What we know:
Elements: E1 4-9, H1 15-22, E2 30-35, H2 37-45, E3 51-55, E4 66-75, E5 82-86, E6 95-97, H3 104-115, E7 122-124, E8 138-143, E9 156-159, H4 160-168, E10 172-179, H5 185-200, H6 202-208, H7 217-224, H8 231-245
Parallel strand pairs: 1-2, 1-3, 6-7, 6-8
Antiparallel strand pairs: 3-10, 4-10, 5-8, 5-9
The chain binds the ligand C=C(O[C@@H]1C=C(C(=O)O)C=C[C@H]1O)C(=O)O.
The ligand C=C(O[C@@H]1C=C(C(=O)O)C=C[C@H]1O)C(=O)O binds next to helix 3 and strand 10.
Pathway: Quinol/quinone metabolism; menaquinone biosynthesis
Keywords: Lyase, Menaquinone biosynthesis
Organism: Mucilaginibacter pedocola
Amino acid sequence: MNKIRISAVSYTNTKPFLYGLQDSAIMDKIELSLDMPSDCAQKLIDDKADIGLIPVAATLSLPHWEIVSNYCIGTLGAVNSVFIFSNCDIKDVKTVQLDPQSRSSNNLAKVLMKNFWQVQPELIVGAEDYSTSTDPNTAFVQIGDRTFGKAEAYPFVYDLSAEWLKFTGLPFVFAAWIANKPIPADFMQEFDNALRHGLAHRHELLKELPQRADFDLEDYLMHKLDFDLTEEKKKALYLFLDYIKAL
Ligand SMILES: C=C(O[C@@H]1C=C(C(=O)O)C=C[C@H]1O)C(=O)O
């Protein structure tokens, strides 16, 4: 059998999953690559991967997609790694630079700006001064490890899944394990078992990760992230897709 090609996110949020996969015999059956989320999505769209931990917003660009795991990159509220960083209140922001590595959070920012904050700043994709603009009314979306330690550095900081909870009362799913073609059921079962094994060994993983003075990795991996793809999270996922379609 050909190996199943899997693209996973190269951020710390995915390390519990990698720990589980690398500690399982499933490694012999897969070809694993680590990519930034926007590239995970593109690989699935271009059929360069069979399964990806892809931004859920990117499912809208797939002719066929199916969820192949009971786990995800999700949260019950604040996630502490997906933000709009700003020098002014969101109501006064004139320009928002989007994160080139993101698909879900850029869309989450758009959904919240339109429906929750009811503001209409100009959106910039691929800004040359991304994340470094000194303009007082320019803000930026940022995700992943690049945000660690930055929450203290800006006067206005919006944790986007915390804002989504205020808006909808729901948890949030940033990325899920999605296939672009049918995957054998026995493989899916073995895959899920490996992911569960990784999640159950987060304390061992934390001992291996370099600690940071400016970011609480244990709180992040044990509490802020919530990896179970529950019915409530699926409800949030489909609601989010509806909001994106209406943008
Ligand atoms: C919580 C996060 O979730 C992510 C956000 C994504 C996005 O915005 O497209 C995609 C994958 C996840 O890595 C994060 O990256 O910090």
